[in-house]
Structures are given as structure tokens and as C-alpha cells.
Amino acid sequence: MSDFTGKVAVVTGGTRGIGFATARALREAGATVVLTGRDAETAAKRAQEIDAHGVALDVSDSAAVKDVFKAIAKEHGRIDVLVASAGVLEGGLIGMLTDEHVATTLGTNVAGTIACVQAAARAMMRKRSGSIVLLGSIVGERGNAGQAVYAASKAALSAFAKSAAKELGRSGIRVNAVAPGVIQTDLIAEQSDEVLAKIKDDTALRRLGTADEVAKVIAFLAGDDASFVTGQVLGIDGGLVL
Predict the structure, then answer these.
(1) Residue 181: CATH number of its domain
(2) Would 17 disulfide with which of 142, 185, 203, 227, CB 3.0-4.6 Å?
(3) Among the options 150, 153, 173, 222, which is catalytic?
(4) Does 150 participate in catalysis according to the annotation?
């Protein structure tokens, strides 16, 4: 893993799952880490566990995003890495979707991520360097019944990552995305044993992934070892998509 000593990394949605695992990996690699979550108390508690900084942030509030990122850049003097992990996963058949469901999913996963990239990129442009990694999903690449809006939101992030990479590359900023498969986090807690068994059977490695495995790939993309990698959507799915 690259050495992140002296670098400042912001991880949105960093209080649980892949986000927290990534925040921990970056901190262990020497980065000054600021993790965000919707609840201030939870963010502070999780940050304390890894000697990081915790900040309350609802990424769907664009004004709050601007204020928080300005405060981070002012306090720490720079932002070198953004891992945009904040998102919501709500299922729903197409015929049953509500306006609120659509607005919440797209407002958080797409608009919220874009707002964070905008805010981080402004800080990164001052140093003419930086790395941004977006958390997509295998569902955005292949779709899934009952998750049409979620799939659309993650597919949008893949397209956004590629476009942002082309635009921000001239400022020395790299933008990539990861597309995890089925990962052992609380997001799959409601899945039945039968469903999970079927997924394992369809996966080349015959198992589910872990948050730490995804975090290591994100850290690679965020670090100097991937200095010539941008505009990529990297699958982390154990061979589920082959």
C-alpha cells in the first residue's frame, strides 16, 4: 500500500461498512483521515476508534457539503484524497416506486457524490494534485430486479467518474470508481441464507467479499502506486461478473 503520510483523506459515509474499512486502511497507511456520517455522535465515536476526525454530514445537503469541505481544508491545510462512500440502498419494484424513494436515492447517491467531488476538487486544484475514488456497485454494471433506482444511481457514478477524470486530469486530479460485488456488511443483513448461497454459487471464488478487501483496492487507487490510473471502474466482485 502507498504511504499516505502527510496527506489528508476525506471518507464520506465512513462510519460503517466499506467506508469505515477504507478510513481505517488509509489511517494505518499514515493519512490524516476525516470520516463523515449523518450522526455526529456516531461519526465522533467511529473516528476515535481509528484515531481519525469525525464530522457530521448529510451529503444530500449541498450547502452543508460546501461548508464542511471548506472547514476541513482550512483546518488541515489541504485535501489530497476523497473517497465518496456515502450512499443509500433501498429496494423497490418499478411499479411501486414513490417520488420520495427516487428523490432520496438519486439525491444522496448521485447529487450528493457530485457535490462532494466538486468541493474536494476545489481544494485539490490549489495543489494541482489529488485522487478521488467513488463507490459504485456491481448492480450499476449489470442491473438487478427490485433495485432499478439504486442501479441507475450507481451506473450514473461510473459515467460521472469517467467524465470527471477527463475534466480534472489537466489539474493533476485522478478520478476512479470501484464496483464491489456482494460484500459482507450490514447492507446484506436481511438477505436469506438461500439468496446468499445462490450468490456464492454464481461467484467464481465461491464466497462473499469483505469490506477490508474492498478498502485495500480503494486505497491502492487513492495512492501514488496508481499514479497513472484514472477514469477506471474497477470491479471487486470475486468473479461474479464474468
Answers:
(1) 3.40.50.720
(2) 185
(3) 150
(4) yes
